[in-house]
Amino acid sequence: MKKNGFTLMEVIISCGILALFMTGVISLYTHGGKVGNTTMWLQNTINQLKLATRQINTSIQKSSYPSVIKYPSDIIKSEADNFKINYAENEILTSSITSGEKIFLKSTESVPASMGGINGNVVASISYHIFSLTSQGEIIYYRYEDTISPTDITKTYSKAVPSGSIKYKTKLVKDVESIVCKKLVDTRNNSPLEITINCHMPNAKTTRSETTIGVPNVDLKVMTP
């Protein structure tokens, strides 16, 4: 009596075809996952870079020296190096805020003090905008705040960072591979500062960069290591 069934050769061929099919399905699934991860990383990184460069540009544009208005017509400024736009050149990172972080940009924003006049002496306020890069490749933005008496400004106030607490801190970008700060020459105004942030997707070849150019109201100064 004849029995229905599969020969060994048929079974081997079927298994081979199934293996090829499953390999294709797994490869397609893996490739699709990589494409999805890359797309998500690019979208997140683009948004982070735009926010970071906007914050950096805004801080540079708001830069100003601590000053005091002495009635009726005298203005005194403290143009010490600490109140210039301090930046790290050629990817050299300088003094740290905390362990594992290096500052690459620092600017100050001041509201003038006043002496004399109807309201008497009014203290100045100053905000320190500090951008640092962590050892994990994250850009952190800090804002400190301080007040200055008119007499302190007239004595060439030159404090680098206030001793008080941080008023604001946030992470702007992650997966940062390098930061390049470059002074641009402009004889008409204060020299603009070009900053390029380069990001690299972990375990991949995908990269993304963003450049911003800020025009300060103060001079530029290269920070030394």
Rg computed from alpha carbons, rounded to a whole number of angstroms: 28 Å
Shape: elongated
Poorly predicted regions: none
Number of helices: 2
What would the average pLDDT be, to the nearest integer?
Answer: 84
- Tell me the total number of β-strands: 12
DSSP helix fraction: 25-40%
Count of structural domains: 1
Spatial strand arrangement across the major sheet: 8-7-6-4-3-12
Q: Hey, roughly how much beta strand do the residues contain?
A: 35-45%
- SSE run: HEEEEEEEHEEEEE
Structural class designation: alpha+beta
State the major sheet.
Answer: 6 strands, mixed
Task: Kindly report how far apart the N and C termini lie.
Answer: 93 Å
In a nutshell, what does this entry contain?
The protein is an alpha+beta fold.
Report on this model:
- This protein is α+β, with helices and mostly antiparallel strands and 225 residues long.
- It has one domain (33-222).
- Helix content is 26%, strand content 36%.
- It has 2 helices and 12 strands, in the order H-E-E-E-E-E-E-E-H-E-E-E-E-E.
- It has helices at residues 8-61, 150-154; strands spanning 67-70, 74-77, 85-87, 101-111, 113-115, 124-134, 139-148, 166-173, 176-183, 193-200, 207-214, 220-222.
- A 6-stranded mixed sheet has the order 8-7-6-4-3-12. The chain has a 3-stranded mixed sheet with strand order 2-1-5. Strands 9-10-11 form a 3-stranded antiparallel sheet, covered by helices on one side.
- Strand 6 and strand 7 form a beta hairpin.
- The radius of gyration is 28 Å and the shape is elongated.
